[in-house]
Write a structure and sequence with these properties.
- It holds the Pfam family Bac_transf.
- Keywords: Membrane, Transferase, Transmembrane, Transmembrane helix.
- Belongs to the bacterial sugar transferase family.
- It is found in: Membrane.
- The protein is of the alpha/beta class.
- The protein has 3 domains: about 1-140, no CATH class; about 145-240, 3-Layer(aba) Sandwich (Rossmann fold); about 270-465, no CATH class.
- It has helices at about 1-35, 45-60, 60-65, 75-100, 110-140, 160-165, 200-205, 220-235, 245-250, 275-310, 345, 360-365, 375-380, 395-400, 420, 430-445, 450-465, and strands at about 145-150, 170-180, 195, 210-215, 235-240, 255, 260-265, 315-320, 325-335, 385, 415.
- The protein is flat.
């Protein structure tokens, strides 16, 4: 019930934003045409196509809202500004794409720019204010759910934080029953202690309980069945909290498989064939223009400079572990001086001021231009534009020993860039903390993949090509 209430709140918030932006678009256009002659906006202009672009941009930004929906009623100023910026950015992208595609010179750029600016301000305010007001209106005093909690005595204090996050959905703590007959819980503001679980029938009847939350499955199956039967007899909703994450020491994701319920350590959106097809389409759309238009002249420039500064092969081709840990030959422009084969030197990470790197290659590496040949690996399906960054096999083995979940990154194709790289984790891995953070971001990417996430990472990486971080060398 609580999940449905929260889902409804998120949907209503989204619908309210859509309605508000739609009404504001037409009212603002009418206001400009009537009262602001300095803005050249004619009634002959086809505003409908731009209105549809605004709507498309706003709907595309709904993915960003889903990322923070669990704390929608508790957004800070920075998160509200981030949501507004993402949505207005997508609107602007759609609007200016329409202007470019139609070569429309009749539309006022000043009108569109000022509309987007005012819309950002409105969305920033609504993200911070509206969800709390909607929750109060929808789940106020008339829609409260008297809730009884059942669990071990030591779990009562932990309810405080949970209730603070769910009070907006109408949860009204009515009491707490302990599964330990002889235990007395510590004082807590969460819910009043009402005794042992054998008092459940009386409490359900006297307190008009609408919902029971079982904080753990009782060790005694008989007690568990009695709780279920008594809740059914009184018409109470029953929610059962699982302790799988606490027992395993790792977050889990639930799934239904053939009528059986399972828990897994990671969600995998890319196991959906449609998602894989979309990602492959994105890879081809990005890689093909690079391979056809950008790579040939870049190869010529690098080849010519290499003849003067470091004669030798144009490419550096080395094995890397791909999806399913299958090896493939990864391409990059050679950026180091030729040297006799040495496995130890081969496994050494490039460092700041590394004397193995010839002068022009420092520029290539800093701006990630040495990685451009990997778009060929993307085009033939060995890599993806975005994914966990592959490392040398010798480092693979070393990192596997240091990070327990390291091998999980091989569930998907490796990428030219990844979430870790877009967040500034590039270059030499100097500390265990840096390695753990890179793997954490890689696994987060695998579990939370979306097309919009790929687009965001690609745009962030493109920015770093022109404005490289300090860790790029």
């Amino acid at each position: 019930m609580l999940a449905n209430r929260h889902r409804g709140l998120v949907r209503i918030h989204g619908a309210a934003l859509l309605l508000g932006v739609a009404v504001f678009f037409w009212l603002y256009a009418e206001f400009i045409m009537r009262y602001v002659p300095v803005v050249k906006l004619s009634r002959e202009v086809n505003l409908l196509q731009y209105f549809l672009c605004v709507v498309i941009g706003l709907l595309a930004g709904a993915e960003r809202i889903r990322g923070v929906e669990s704390r929608l009623t508790r957004l800070g100023g920075a998160e509200a500004a981030g949501l507004a910026t993402t949505q207005v950015g997508l609107m602007a992208l759609a609007v200016f794409a329409m202007m470019f595609a139609t070569q429309d010179r009749s539309i006022s750029r000043l009108f569109l720019g000022s509309f987007l600016a005012w819309t950002w301000l409105g969305l920033f305010f609504l993200h911070g204010w509206l969800p709390r007001r909607l929750a109060g209106f929808l789940y106020g005093s008339g829609a409260r759910i008297p809730t009884l909690f059942i669990g071990r005595a030591e779990t009562l204090p932990m309810l405080d934080d949970w209730l603070k996050q769910r009070m907006h959905l109408g949860v009204l703590p009515a009491g707490f029953l302990t599964l330990d007959e002889l235990a007395t819980p510590a004082r807590s503001s969460a819910a009043p202690f009402m005794g042992a679980v054998d008092k459940l029938p009386r409490v359900l009847a006297e307190k008009a309980i609408a919902q029971v939350i079982l904080l753990e499955v009782p060790a005694n199956p008989l007690i568990a069945r009695q709780i279920v039967e008594q809740c059914q007899a009184q018409g109470c909703r029953l929610l059962v909290h699982h302790l799988v994450e606490e027992v395993l020491g790792h977050p889990v994701v639930s799934s239904d498989e053939g009528g059986h319920h399972f828990f897994t350590l990671h969600d995998e959106p890319l196991e959906d064939p449609l998602n894989r097809a979309l990602k492959r389409l994105f890879d081809v759309l990005v890689a093909l223009p690079v391979v056809v238009c950008l790579l040939p002249p870049l190869m010529l420039v690098v080849w010519v400079v290499q003849r003067f500064q470091s004669p030798g092969p144009l490419f550096h081709v080395r094995a890397r572990s791909g999806e399913g840990r299958t090896e493939f030959p990864m391409l990059k422009f050679r950026s180091m001086e030729l040297a006799p084969a040495d496995p130890r030197a081969e496994g050494r990470q490039a460092r700041l001021g590394d004397d193995r790197i010839y002068p022009f290659a420092r520029f290539l590496r800093r701006h990630s231009l040495d990685e451009f040949p990997q778009f060929w690996n993307v085009l033939i399906g060995e890599m993806s534009v975005v994914g966990p960054r592959p490392v040398m096999p010798v480092l693979d083995e070393e990192f596997e020993r240091q990070v327990r979940s390291y091998r999980s990154k091989h569930w998907v194709k490796p990428g030219i860039t990844g979430l870790a790289q877009s967040e500034g984790y590039r270059g030499e891995i100097q500390t265990p903390e840096q390695l753990h953070e890179r793997i954490r971001l890689d696994l987060y990417y695998i579990a939370h993949w979306s097309m919009w996430l790929d687009v965001q990472i690609t745009l962030k990486t493109l920015r770093q090509v022109f404005l490289p971080p300090k860790s790029a060398y």
